[in-house]
């Protein structure tokens, strides 16, 4: 998984595949977005960005309030779905 995180295009594909699997398992888009928010919180707190795209996402995450972070998480889910 570490190599997936290093290349942003592969990261988007990876996320897209996970979103697709979650939908096939019956999860709603709202549930998936809530999970994306929780994952975003974890990544922001625990993981150092490894590339410029991750750094931009972290900087955006850090300046957003909770509601804006939820919007950002939902946008990332949409981006992932577009790359599935």
Overview of the structural elements:
The protein has a single domain (2-82), classed as Cytochrome Bc1 Complex, Chain D, domain 2, CATH 1.10.760. Helix content is 82%, strand content 0%. Helix 3 packs across helix 5 (66-82). The chain is mainly alpha-helical and 84 residues long. The protein has 5 helices and no strands.
List keywords for this structure.
84 residues; mainly alpha; Cytochrome Bc1 Complex, Chain D, domain 2; 82% helix; 0% strand
In short:
This protein has 5 helices and no strands. The protein has about 80 residues and is mostly helical.
Continuous helix count: 5
Q: Identify the CATH class.
A: Mainly Alpha
Q: Which structural class should the secondary elements be placed in? A: mainly alpha
Q: State the distance separating the first and last CA atoms.
A: 17 Å
> Could you give the count of β-strands?
0
Mean pLDDT: 86
CATH topology: Cytochrome Bc1 Complex, Chain D, domain 2
Shape verdict: globular
Radius of gyration of CA atoms, rounded to a whole number = 12 Å
For the record, the CATH architecture stands as Orthogonal Bundle
Largest sheet: none
- How much beta, percentage-wise? under 5%
List the helices and strands and how they pair.
Blueprint: H1 2-6, H2 8-24, H3 29-46, H4 52-63, H5 66-82
Helix pairs in contact: 2-5, 3-5
